[in-house]
Amino acid sequence: MTESSGAAEVVACPECDLMVRLPGIQEDARLGCPRCHHTLSYSGEARLRRALPLGVCAALLLLLSLSFPFMSFESAGVENRMTLIQASWALLLDGSYVLSALVMVFIVIAPAVLVACVLVVSSFIYRQKPSAGVATATKLLFGLTSWSMVEVFIIGVFVSLVKIAAMATVELGVSLWAYLGLSFALVGAIASLDKVSIWRLLAQSRGGAR
Amino acid sequence: MMPRTARSAGKVGCSVCHKVNPGSVAQCSQCGSHLYSRIPHSLQRTYALTLVAIVLYIPANLLPITYTVYLGASGPSTIFGGVVTLWQMGSVGIALVIFVASVFVPVAKLAILLYLCEVVRRQRIGNPHKVAFLYRLTEFIGRWSMIDVFVVAILVALVRLGNIISFYPGPAALSFAGVVIVTMVAAAQFDPRLLWDVSEKSNYE
Fold this sequence. Notes:
The complex is a heterodimer. Chain A is an alpha+beta fold. Chain A has 8 helices and 7 strands. In chain A, the strands form 3 sheets. In chain A, strands 6-5-7 form a 3-stranded antiparallel β-sheet. The two termini of chain A are 25 Å apart. A 4-stranded antiparallel β-sheet of chain B has the order 4-3-6-5. In chain B, strands 1-2 form a two-stranded antiparallel sheet. Chain B is elongated, with a radius of gyration of 22 Å. At the A-B interface, β1, β5, β6, α3 and α4 of A face β1, α3, α4, α5 and β5 of B.
């Protein structure tokens, strides 16, 4: 088997170890493993270039969702507002230190790091100049994806709404809608960043510098 | 004909960037990651983590996940109690969401992880595609069980009106978060390539 000559490239399927020759297709196409049907790669430049606008969008939405009230709750004339950070902070106040830290990681820190990684990797795709941080950002991006739980938190919000809607008046804030937008932007950005293509581009850019 | 896997060709597929490396090197030539043909001690690690998750699952269900103060009176509520209360309130849909996310999915995940380990340990597999589907399901669905933990975080932060009405976190919230985290790590430690190794043996020997 010849490797990395021209457009065709051989990868090992991470799920079944089969060696697969990937064709160098230019347009959007899904390339699956012939044995276990695991999606190996999504080809196409256009798809990769979608990541930067989505990443910028996600960064702005994250900033918005951190700077406005998330929800407010009113009963018997008394009102309480919460921000996104307070979802973790209130647990700390009530003595659940570990839980507070975990929630903070899942809903703010991991998404923020992911957004930063998306920006680093997707701007690399536009400039194609090698820089030290890109490989680390790529590894972090794919390693951290399942620990960022923006969309899970959104479902949690709607479940809580049903639980307390009967008890009092609940109002939804700007931050909630921004966070909902963030969940779509982040999922879209990560889905458009194809792992195999990024590593191939990184290898090419380093090869050019050599 | 045997499927041409990286291992059968004496090579190692990188688990980070999927590049095929010669079997003699320790680091991937493309991304610099540590190379291994199969995750070391994959079965032992998955078994051990699954056992930890099973142990954590007991306090997660027996202890209260929240304490509610309503007009001065205080009461605990468990995960299952919360599902029953929602059902009685008439929110059948949401009760089902919580039941699936907090009761059904964690139990199903633990059962699937044990089943996957047993398949590899006994070296017998029926249809590898079906077993691989179970593995992917476990990988994909794990984080969604965190819904109930987030509901606790939101209620505690939002409903804080002193004696009128307030929610406080219970010990089960941390145990349950532990179950979800440990099963996510257990699923990540299971090497799906082992399933296909078993299928090669049963088909070609």
